[in-house]
């Protein structure tokens, strides 16, 4: 079995456009949540969202490439360029070797809705234009990045709601561990536009604390009132240790555990048993005991039931060890399809800079969160091994465990 | 009513803006396909931009006889004038 290491990472998120900016925001406990007034004109119950600037790609990519890219692909491209650069993977190497891509994405709503609007208005599908089909499919990220970077390995989109990109990394880990691939670009992307979140807003899932956006996402806090949507993209380069050492790549960390499960129950209501199994399977895969984990990046989205179930699951596995826990969604909002990958990047930044980012807005514990060691203020602390949870609609659960690389 | 000069200006405008053609490479006798580097997908976008700019729909087969920029200008001018006659 191959050891699987992380050799590069990149991020484009509402708390920073690159690794340095994001590291500083995490340390400062800075929120990326805003009130997006146009959403009110569209009848949104909540206009709260994480927001990023539109990347300027003219001059970097040609017209045909840009035309085929949906909004989330723009973000994924920026994050992936950063990851490839710090993994020291250049065009020639990627052309000469079988590099794969496994990316989490579970919507491309804006492209679909805009095409439908044109089709209905014009009654002529030619007028939708040539780029729409490539923007509209769930695999828009992988189909675009694989052609831009000339990738020749596995080329697959992973759609598993808000656990999509965590599973993408987990599946990549399996493929490298088993020797099927040497190097895979893994990550997750999430569109932010008004179209993608309308129906999510419609089921009353979002916080309506619109008077104070920075305080609206408050995982584990007793006074939480829902999640805040967000987006962007995050990329990690995972690679066999042999491949990384052969090409002299920087080794940022090692992936040592992946666990997954399905709740087998309700489409939206989480439970405790499913996440507990995912956590336990990851721990077994990593061959670790609860006391070996230095930090947990919780999935906790700031919904009453979801946070409560995860708190119970973490208490069941880690309760006696009082493992430090925070949900970076308190700052970023819920980055949905991107969250599994972004939270690996956030945790890696903490690991490399010896701090635990705060679970901001955690002011009043509830019955379940009171049992946990939730870090509400930035804490200087060495992290050797961390665990990251991601859960999604339909009861899909994923857990990853990452550790500092030791020879 | 647009003059031929205005029509040509509009065409050159969208070729530079939408198709990112270097303005200096546009000349009446240059070959449209080569200068723009058109592939089959680009013709779809040409249909879209013509519809948005001049308000008429180009059929795919109409492109068959168009080789140079001048052919393209002539075709658009003809269609715009036909449209104006119908409206009048």
Characterization of this structure:
The complex is a heterodimer of chains A (407) and B (88). Chain A has 407 residues and is α/β, with parallel strands linked by helices. Chain A folds into two domains: 4-246, Thiolase/Chalcone synthase (Peroxisomal Thiolase, Chain A, domain 1, 3-Layer(aba) Sandwich); 259-403, Thiolase/Chalcone synthase (Peroxisomal Thiolase, Chain A, domain 1), CATH 3.40.47.10. Chain A contains 15 helices and 15 strands. The two termini of chain A are 16 Å apart. The model of chain A has no long low-confidence stretch (mean pLDDT 97). Chain B has a single domain, classed as ACP-like (Non-ribosomal Peptide Synthetase Peptidyl Carrier Protein, Chain A, Orthogonal Bundle), CATH 1.10.1200. Chain B is globular. The A-B interface holds A 62-64, 67, 122, 124, 126-131 and B 19-20, 39, 41-42, 44-45, 47-48, 51, 57.
Which structural traits does this protein have?
heterodimer, A: 407 residues, alpha/beta, Peroxisomal Thiolase, Chain A, domain 1, 2 domains, eleven-stranded mixed β-sheet, 15 helices, B: 88 residues, mainly alpha, Non-ribosomal Peptide Synthetase Peptidyl Carrier Protein, Chain A, 0% strand, globular
Q: Can you give the helix content of chain B as a percent range?
A: 55-70%
CATH superfamily of the largest domain in chain A: Thiolase/Chalcone synthase
Radius of gyration of chain B: 12 Å
The counted number of beta strands of chain B is 0
Range of strand content of chain B: under 5%
Task: Tell me the radius of gyration of chain A.
Answer: 20 Å
Biggest sheet record of chain B: none
The main sheet of chain A comes to: 11 strands, mixed
Strand content of chain A: 15-25%
The CATH level-2 architecture of the largest domain in chain A is identified as: 3-Layer(aba) Sandwich
- The name CATH uses for the topology of the largest domain in chain A is Peroxisomal Thiolase, Chain A, domain 1
Query: Strands of the largest sheet of chain A, in order across it?
Result: 5-4-6-7-1-8-15-14-9-10-12
CATH topology term of chain B: Non-ribosomal Peptide Synthetase Peptidyl Carrier Protein, Chain A
């Amino acid at each position: 079995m191959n050891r699987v290491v992380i050799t590069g990472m990149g991020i484009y998120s509402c708390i920073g456009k690159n690794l340095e900016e994001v590291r500083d925001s995490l340390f400062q406990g800075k929120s990326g949540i805003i009130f997006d007034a146009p959403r009110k004109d569209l009848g949104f119950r909540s206009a709260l969202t994480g927001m990023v600037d539109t990347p300027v790609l003219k001059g970097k990519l040609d017209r045909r490439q840009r035309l085929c890219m949906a909004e989330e692909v723009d973000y994924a491209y920026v994050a992936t360029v950063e990851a490839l650069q710090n993994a020291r993977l250049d065009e020639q190497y990627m052309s000469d070797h079988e590099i794969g891509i496994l990316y989490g994405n579970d919507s491309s709503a804006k492209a679909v809705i805009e095409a439908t609007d044109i089709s209905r208005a014009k009654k002529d599908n030619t007028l939708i234009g040539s780029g729409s089909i490539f923007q509209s499919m769930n695999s828009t990220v992988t189909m675009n990045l694989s052609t831009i970077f000339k990738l020749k390995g596995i080329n697959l989109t992973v759609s598993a709601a808000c656990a999509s990109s965590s599973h993408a990394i987990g599946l990549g880990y399996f493929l490298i561990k088993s020797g099927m691939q040497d190097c895979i670009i893994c990550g997750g992307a999430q569109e932010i536009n008004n179209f993608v979140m309308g129906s999510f807003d419609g089921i009353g899932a979002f916080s309506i604390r619109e008077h104070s956006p920075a305080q609206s996402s408050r995982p584990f806090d007793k006074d939480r009132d829902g999640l805040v949507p967000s987006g962007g993209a995050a990329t990690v380069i995972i690679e066999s240790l042999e491949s990384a050492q052969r090409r002299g790549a920087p080794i940022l960390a090692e992936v040592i555990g992946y666990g997954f499960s399905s709740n087998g129950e309700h489409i939206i209501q989480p439970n405790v048993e499913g996440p507990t199994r995912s956590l336990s399977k990851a721990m077994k895969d990593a061959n670790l005991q609860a006391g070996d984990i230095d930090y947990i990046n919780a999935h906790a989205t700031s919904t009453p039931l979801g946070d409560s179930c995860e708190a119970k699951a973490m208490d069941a596995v880690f309760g006696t060890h009082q493992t430090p826990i925070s949900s970076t969604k308190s700052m970023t909002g819920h980055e949905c399809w991107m969250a599994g990958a972004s939270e690996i990047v956030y945790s890696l930044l903490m690991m490399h800079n010896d701090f635990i980012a705060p679970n901001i807005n955690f002011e009043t514990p509830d019955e379940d969160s009171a049992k946990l060691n939730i870090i509400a203020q930035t804490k200087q602390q060495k992290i050797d091994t961390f665990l990251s949870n991601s859960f999604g609609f339909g009861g899909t659960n994923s857990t990853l465990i990452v550790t500092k690389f030791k020879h | 009513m647009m003059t031929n000069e205005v029509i040509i200006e509009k065409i050159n405008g969208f070729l530079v803006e939408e198709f990112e053609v270097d303005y200096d490479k546009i000349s009446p006798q240059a070959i449209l396909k080569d200068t723009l580097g058109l592939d089959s997908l680009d013709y779809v976008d040409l249909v879209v931009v013509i519809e948005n700019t001049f308000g008429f729909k180009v059929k795919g087969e109409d492109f068959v006889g168009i080789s140079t920029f001048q052919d393209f200008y002539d075709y658009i001018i003809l269609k715009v004038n036909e449209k104006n006659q119908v409206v009048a």
